[in-house]
UniProtKB/TrEMBL annotation:
GO cellular component entries: plasma membrane
One Pfam family here: AlaDh_PNT_N
Active site residues according to the UniProt entry: H95 (proton donor/acceptor), D268 (proton donor/acceptor)
Name of the molecule in the record: Alanine dehydrogenase
Record's keyword terms, sorted: NAD, Nucleotide-binding, Oxidoreductase
PANTHER family, per database record: ALANINE DEHYDROGENASE
One of the protein's GO biological processes: L-alanine catabolic process
Amino acid sequence: MKIGIPREIKAQEDRVGLTPGNVRTLVNNGHEVLVEAGAGVGAGFTDSEYASAGARIEDQPATIWASEMVIKVKEPLASEYDYFHEGLILFAYFHLAPELELTDALLAHKVTAIAYETMVENGSLPLLTPMSEVAGRMAIQIGAHYLEKQNGGSGILLSGVPGVASGHVVVIGGGTVGYNAAKVAVGMGARVTILDVNTGRLAQIEDILNGKVTTLMSNEENIRQVIKDADVVVGSVLVTGRRAPVLVSEEMVQTMKAGSVLVDIAVDQGGNFETTHPTTHQDPVYVKHGVTHYTVANIPGAVPRTSTLALTNATMKFANQIINQGVEAAAKNSETILTGINAYQGHLTHEGVAESQNRDYTPFQDLLSK
């Protein structure tokens, strides 16, 4: 199979779909790999490393996209839609629920879209987990940065010092993102409150973190009360394939302290805060009702070396199955790959995405029988 690795064009996105080591594995297995010039430079991988691994370096994006399969990180942007072609297998993050135009383009060109974020294995999300770990850990250092007075914050040090209270971090959602955010916040010495709808998960987090967090049932009243005292609030609630639930209304944001910080990690799926709109690493924050909003849609892109290695550690297993077996056979042999197929032959094949966009849903298996 011919596999293309394009350079990411999203603002300040320096991750890359495969490492030189991954390329060498594919080439040794008889596949052809095309890498766009400069695709890995931001993550610390040079063109010469890719070439030494057996890749063909190409200057033109169109040549890369003409491949049978394209492996990338972030969802394609509008300027890339013209590269789509029937039968293309595109393996990437898509977060399609709020992306109507991208969905239209995928369906119109009959692209096979396999989304990292909807792939489920034993109840977990193996290709979302590594980036969730990165984003959760980064959320706290981001929040601490924007609490500094010169960055528009209230001047609070999360750790406090002897004789001075530490800052208060509120984490909404106890999944991978939320747990990692809480873990780092506890490590910094902050007071931490974490909310989730699953009391079993809250008990688990409390146990793992040795009781150093306050746990609350996630409901409107508890969220409303706890964010009034918060210095940093992290939104981390996602529903696979669907729009993220709005858990903090604009009226609630208005009750927060001036100079406090919101970090909305669910922004890719629409966000947990009513006041959220996506930003970029070039212009990451805005202030609304006196509260700094950090709503960058690709937070792990700020640490592209770590993120690329963590992501490809997870994706390569499934990429190999798709490349070596083809989409249909791979989906038959792997329930995880099946759950990742969002679009196929001009049909939406993920129920959550279809429901979020009010479109028709066609099970992948139904298309195989035609």
